[in-house]
Amino acid sequence: MRYTTVFLAALALLGTSAAGVLAALPDQIDVKVKNLSPEDTIYDRTRQLFYQSNLYKGRIEVYNPKTKSHFNVHIDGYSSNGNGEQQMSGLSLLTHDNSKRLYAVMKNANSFNFGDQSDHGPSSFHSFDLPLSEDSKPVWSVDFQQVQDEFEQKAGKRPFGVVQSAQDRDGNSYVAFALGMPAIARVSADGKTVSTFAWESGHGGQRPGYSGITFDPHTNKLLAFGGPRPLTAFDVSKPHASPEPVHINGDFGSLDGTEKIVTVPVGNDSVLVGARAPNAISFRSWDNWKTANIKMTQRSELKNSGFTAVADYYQGSEQGLYAVSAYFDNGVHGGRSDYPLYKLDSSILNF
Fold first, then answer.
1. What is the percent of the chain where pLDDT is above 70?
2. Burial of 192 (0-12, 13-18, 19+ CB in 10 A)
3. Element containing residue 17 per DSSP (H, E)
4. Which residues form the signal peptide (predicted)?
5. Ordered structural domains, the chain, with CATH
């Protein structure tokens, strides 16, 4: 009896240890796709897939980290071999879990070409049903030229350089402009209406607009990252919203280099995580985003990698954060084939 008890205890301990080893998240996830240059990446926890923006080719890359297999989704009339008029800049899911839709933001290829910049080139927004396949086509697509004209008429400046989108509880989408001036366009859930939602005066520099945007379902607030300040909140219950500056408790540092931001569920609350190389910066609020506390973490690999986004990733119940880099220096046809996602210190989710 004594030996049986000891044996069972040892077996239980071994099982626990094995489970712990199996559950450990990898320090690095290697995505090997030639000339991928992912400006954005999101993880579909329900289907256990990464969706990545193939920047220069304007495609959606779908990567399975378990099988290390992938395929891409070509958008007719928009995607290219790498030299097209539009580039894939941002991706978002309708809901964090059990999402039925994926959204893709495409910017004009010359919007961020500061040597030969254009603020009137084509940019677009596309909605896809999930799950995706190689043959998937958009449920609807919209162009931003008309709403840019409306912004220009109302504000006297033309926003351009769309970078990221977010969806509210009703399925409306909000698309952030990073250049010209800080502005956000609103797209109805059926894609039939595109309207001016919010804007404010820029503060000079090459990138005066919002660099990222996300939605917090717990507070029903839209949050923009970067541009005139670290964080700006908006009330989505209104057809047109005024910017609400979020007071930051702590030293945020420079606004230079802010990129995309994502909402990460932590228990019954939300933590926002933004990219500003080489730091990932998290935000947590207890007063409906009037104020926010911050935490930071960094990895040396992100200093010159084109760190643009953070994705939350899961193995079973274990949650992790991963940094996504576009490696812009590789260029359109540079031939790079390895685009690693680096694990971040997930303690920045705990406040």
1. 93
2. exposed
3. helix 2-23
4. 1-23
5. 28-349 (2.120.10.30)
